[in-house]
């Protein structure tokens, strides 16, 4: 039995790929069909932002969003914005409040500073260099991406061996920003602390969580509410990309942590 055989325990169709730095190690199911990324989109937005931060086009301390908020606050869910609107729940930097609207506003800010539409920046700086020619970017920097798992795996391989970012900005994107902040992790309740990088969720010591007990605290990635997800564990030098035909639910919460542990047990060197 291989680790990905655990996907059969989900009561709906599921597919996945295990990645090592050399490429795909294992696959199961339909990995070629287009799937909605939903919040997985935020990771590509964060990566694009980090590339433009490295280039000096924008700065993490740029004022952006509500009064007192910066681009950093927007990208790590600390601006105080409500989930889906300009409504403000608390001052910037006080708590981690997950906000699609904040990520979308970050994209607007970057586009304004670059003088280019954000989707063009994503295409030029991330998708084209990685050969993600079939990925569709439908507008929203928070939830607008679509691709096959095969294409999303190209991004996962980049995250295992970065080519588009230098070490300092790669670390900024994938390790905690404002690491002490607590807040609610969507689908998993209150977490203290609740670490996020720039568009990437960071595992830390969150419990419960959708990765496993074996997962390094440095594990980063994201899940989307329509069933697409990926994680990268830099300590194990492994990544998992998966897609399911169901909204994120209790079955995902039950199976995904066991799946992560099985992948790590089978493929860690």
From TrEMBL:
It comes from the Bacteria. The lineage of its organism: Bacteria, Bacillati, Actinomycetota, Actinomycetes, Micrococcales. Pfam families: Beta-lactamase. GO terms for molecular function: hydrolase activity. Residues 37-246 form the Beta-lactamase-related domain. The keyword Hydrolase applies. Its EC number is 3.-.-.-. This is Serine hydrolase domain-containing protein. Keywords: Hydrolase. It is an enzyme of class 3 (hydrolase).
């Amino acid at each position: 039995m291989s680790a990905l055989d655990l996907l059969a325990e989900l009561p709906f169709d599921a597919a996945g790929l295990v990645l090592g730095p050399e490429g795909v190690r294992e696959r199961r199911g339909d990995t070629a069909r287009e799937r909605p990324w939903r919040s997985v989109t935020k990771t590509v937005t964060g990566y694009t932002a980090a590339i433009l931060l490295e280039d000096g086009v924008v700065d993490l301390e740029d004022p952006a969003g509500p009064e007192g908020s910066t681009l950093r606050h927007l990208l790590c869910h600390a601006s105080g914005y409500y989930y889906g609107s300009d409504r403000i729940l608390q001052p910037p930097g006080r708590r981690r409040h997950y906000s699609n609207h904040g990520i979308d506003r970050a994209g607007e800010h970057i586009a304004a500073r670059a003088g280019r539409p954000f989707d063009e920046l994503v295409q030029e700086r991330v998708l084209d260099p990685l050969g993600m020619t079939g990925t569709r970017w439908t507008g929203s920097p928070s939830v607008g991406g679509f691709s096959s798992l095969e294409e999303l795996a190209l991004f996962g391989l980049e995250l295992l061996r970065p080519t588009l970012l230098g070490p300092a900005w790669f670390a900024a994107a994938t390790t905690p920003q404002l690491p002490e902040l607590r807040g609610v992790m969507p689908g998993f309740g209150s977490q203290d602390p609740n670490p996020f990088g720039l568009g990437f969720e960071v595992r830390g010591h969150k419990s419960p969580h959708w990765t496993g007990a074996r997962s390094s605290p440095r594990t980063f990635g994201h899940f989307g509410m329509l069933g697409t997800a990926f994680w990268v564990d830099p300590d194990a030098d492994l990544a998992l990309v998966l897609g399911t035909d169901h909204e994120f639910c209790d079955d995902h919460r039950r199976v995904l942590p066991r799946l992560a542990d099985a992948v790590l047990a089978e493929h860690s060197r």
